[in-house]
Amino acid sequence: MIDFFYAPTPNGWKVAILLEELGLDYKTHLIRLAEGDQLKPEFMAISPNAKIPAIIDHEPLASFGTDPVRVFESGAIMQYLADKTGRFIPTDPLERKEAMEWLFWQVSNQGPMAGQLSHFVNYAPQDNQDYGQKRYSGEYERNLAVLEKRLEDRTYILDEYSICDMITFPWVFIAKPLTVSLDRFLNVAEWRGRIKQRTAVINAINLCKADQNRGKVNVSNNKVLYNQSADHILGSEDKGLM
């Protein structure tokens, strides 16, 4: 059994897709980001970065011991689950090296740039949008171009469908809401179309769908979501959130 701490965002979808593809038994715990659930001590004990997703695996491999295993950060969770099950990750050393390259590309480049673009498209005050949106739209498209070239004459990022596709897909899936067209990225568009038809992907995208924030802004949720500081982690500010 896996406890899955989740919100219906692209980062949450990544792990939801893998859990659905693996058919693992999991229990979803909805983290209400706009209400500050991610800043509560019980969640930060699992995810010290105060971000979703996170998991607790109550049936880890024997090599991890007998206690439940906690994992935070989407890339680490996906590698952990793929290694545990022996699925969706190569075993050949060179192919695994390649998988790690694309996994780290997603978590260090595509995901953060897309997330910042989403902030400026959906949440930033109107008078502060222009520079940030231009900056991150350019970076988002640059990463689409990297993916476009990778997908030349390829069906998936690696030779077979893998965690690299699952972790990359969510931030491409929402290209249109991020005001970016895929017309220049035909390989990416075809790849996106293939993946979004998978039953596991559909189930993951629909998980807690009614609780999606969809870019709604108000004073309280903007403060909780985007005006955090070290004090939110150290616990000396806004005790009401903790």
Quaternary structure of the protein: single chain
Write down the CATH topology of the largest domain: Glutaredoxin
Corresponding CATH architecture of the largest domain: 3-Layer(aba) Sandwich
Residue share in helix: 40-55%
Tell me the Rg in angstroms.
18 Å
Determine the strand fraction and express it as a percent band.
5-15%
User: Could you list the spans in which at least 5 consecutive residues all have pLDDT below 50?
Assistant: 237-242
Number of strands: 4
What is the CATH superfamily label of the largest domain?
A: Glutaredoxin
Ends apart, CA distance between termini: 27 Å
Most strands sheet: 4 strands, mixed
Which structural category do the helix and sheet elements fall into?
Answer: alpha+beta
State the domain count: 2
Average predicted confidence as pLDDT: 89
Following the backbone from N to C, one meets helices and strands in this order, namely EHEHEEHHHHHHHH
Widest β-sheet, arrangement of strands: 2-1-3-4
Describe the structure.
The chain has helices at 10-22, 41-44, 74-85, 93-122, 129-150, 163-173, 186-196, 199-206, 219-226, 230-234, and strands spanning 2-6, 26-30, 54-57, 69-72. By secondary structure, the protein is α+β, with helices and mostly antiparallel strands. Strands 2-1-3-4 form a four-stranded mixed sheet, with helices on one face. Helix 1 packs parallel to helix 3 (74-85), helix 1 (10-22) packs across helix 8 (199-206) and helix 4 (93-122) runs antiparallel to helix 5 (129-150). The chain is globular and about 50 Å long. The chain starts with a strand and ends in an 8-residue tail after the last helix.
